[in-house]
Amino acid sequence: MRREQLSDEVAAHLRAEIMTGVLRPGTFIRLDETAATLGVSITPVREALRTLRGEGMVQLEPHRGHVVVPLSRTDVEDIFWLQATIARELAATVAERITDEQIDELERLNGELADAVGQQDHELISSAEFAFHRAFNHASGRIKLAWFLLHVARYLPALIYSSDPGWGAEAVQGHRELIAALRRRDVDTTVRLNGAQFTDGAARLISRLDQIGMWNHENASDSASNM
């Protein structure tokens, strides 16, 4: 495996742990410990942390190392808002430009997702979901805009969704409704359904972070400031 690819995988792992609250704000990410946990050398971990520093997810404290920066509820909402905004724009174009052959391909890919959900194979579910939306976005012909969505989608911790049986079944059904809307060339419904997945994704992630007390200190600070 190329070093750049390994670094990207380490960054994706750490990014997901930060987004899901496994790595809390203020936590120091140790090079040696992380490398040992992931079974890699220190070099890709160092490069991954450099990437995350550029994204504003960690910061380097002199003589202490990389620390996770605060992630507010607004930060999470903003990330999903941006994804939903781009996704709706792409969906409007897809509904107008997609061919019957491309719709058939989406149906085939959704069948693969349904099979993965039936097997409860979390990694396969994630890859099948990604393949479906990659094909959907590619059908727009707006490659640069699709690239921006892919870039922002890195912040979406796929495994917390793919490991939820309820989410998998809902995703398959949602795709079926989306495909039906595409066959009707129903732009409004296509846009609504494609944007709704991000509204749902934000709600699920925020609910999880609330459950683990991610922002309890913020609530405590607000209460103290109101006294």
Automatic annotation (TrEMBL):
Annotated keywords: DNA-binding, Transcription, Transcription regulation
User: Which InterPro entries does its entry note?
Assistant: GntR_C (IPR011711), TF_FadR/GntR_C (IPR008920), Tscrpt_reg_HTH_GntR (IPR000524), WH-like_DNA-bd_sf (IPR036388), WH_DNA-bd_sf (IPR036390)
* Top-level lineage group: Bacteria
- Name all HTH gntR-type domain ranges: 4-71
Q: Do the record's keywords include Transcription? A: yes
Name the Pfam families for this protein. Answer: FCD, GntR
What's the protein here called? GntR family transcriptional regulator
- Organism, per UniProt? Mycolicibacterium mageritense
Q: What is the lineage of its organism?
A: Bacteria, Bacillati, Actinomycetota, Actinomycetes, Mycobacteriales
